[in-house]
Amino acid sequence: MSVVTADVIVIGLGAMGGAAFRSLASRGLRVVGIEQHSVPHALGSSHGETRIIRKAYFEHPDYVPLLRRSYELWGDLETAIGQQLYHETGLLLIGPPDGEAIPGARLAAERHGIAIEPLSAADLRRRFPWITPREGDECLFEPEAGFLEVERCVEAQVRDGERRQGTAACGERVVEWSAEGRVARVVTDRGRYEAGALVIAGGPWASRLLHEMHVPLEVVRKPVVWFRSRPGAVAPTCGFFVEQEGRAFYGVPSLERGMTKLAEHTGGNVVEDADRVDRLLRSEDVGPLQTFAETTLRDIDSTPVRSAVCLYTLTPDRHFVIDQHPGHANVAVACGFSGHGFKFAPVVGEALADLAVRGESALPIGFLQNRSWT
Ligand SMILES: Cc1cc2nc3c(=O)[nH]c(=O)nc-3n(C[C@H](O)[C@H](O)[C@H](O)COP(=O)(O)OP(=O)(O)OC[C@H]3O[C@@H](n4cnc5c(N)ncnc54)[C@H](O)[C@@H]3O)c2cc1C
């Protein structure tokens, strides 16, 4: 069997691998991306119409410089394809003053000079009458936030990479890879590849590709459900993230008028094998969302209209892994995006391309490298 050669091979053309593919192709490198399914597809972590993007990052302020670069790169992708992918609706953050979201967003906003508006209960009623917070909750509005059209973003990254002479091999599963000095070899169920460097971005399948790294990843099943607003009611006009009683729910206005996508960020059942996921909506998936809708979004009809099941890949501390493979300097890896990675995809792609080709990146990813799991 003949061997296909390239400068860099990318395993996985989902959010992160697709971004690395585009970044490498835009540097004039010969890049081959290998994807076991199609681009996009609905079996991994990057489907379900929309993804929230925001800057006042409560998870950790060190993500903010990466987010700023990500906003620039999403804009660059929109310009390259001549189409809108980002919708700046703003985002409401609601929760207890001593929770994770409100103090974390305030800290990130103060440290990095990000605009956030504290809203009183009266402000909220006037500007966002469709949502009712709990007694004692605080509320912040971040105007420079919104949502990305997830499948269109994934597709646009790869198509733009192909336009720049990248080659995408879809429907082909990587079964083995190895690296030795400046050579990386990949074997798929259809062929063999060889390159100077390798990027591995396997999403929920990452553990299979990175078993030597021993990253304790946990894959979790995450249902999302679309609900319609009652006839004549004002439907949610922006994204929202609500922390209540140790749980977190969020919602995004659908592209279909009058519909809202709801999901729970916390919780979820662990999946042992990402190839065998129950994709049907269960009553225990819908119940908590209906209760949330009934108490917090009173004008939403709690009959589900449609649903999808997606996968989170969690690290123990919920922070990402973006690094060089510890055993191979020419292999860059990204995994464990813990349910909040999509907004970062283009900057992760840029970092992965830097790491694979140069062994280092000027991007501030130090806090996501050399992670210890003991
Ligand atoms: C319901 C839900 C809601 C979310 N909401 C948000 C949000 O609002 N904002 C946000 O920023 N993030 C959000 N996230 C998280 C974000 O979507 C993920 O962090 C991100 O999509 C992960 O991208 P990935 O490239 O790691 O995985 P994927 O996009 O799944 O890509 C991995 C790819 O690798 C391929 N692959 C794996 N193994 C092989 C192999 N052996 N051979 C060939 N190909 C292979 C897979 O087929 C897949 O296409 C959400 C996630 C979910 C599930």
TrEMBL record:
Annotated ranges, domain FAD dependent oxidoreductase: 7-355
Keyword Kinase recorded: no
UniProt keyword annotations, A-Z: FAD, Flavoprotein, Oxidoreductase
Enzyme class: oxidoreductase
SUPFAM superfamilies (alphabetical): FAD-linked reductases, C-terminal domain, FAD/NAD(P)-binding domain
Pfam families: DAO
Entry keyword Oxidoreductase: yes
MF terms (GO), sorted A to Z: flavin adenine dinucleotide binding; sarcosine oxidase activity
EC number: 1.5.3.1
Cofactor(s) of this protein: FAD
Record's protein name: Monomeric sarcosine oxidase
Organism: Caulifigura coniformis
Lineage per the UniProt record: Bacteria, Pseudomonadati, Planctomycetota, Planctomycetia, Planctomycetales
Protein encoded by which gene: soxA
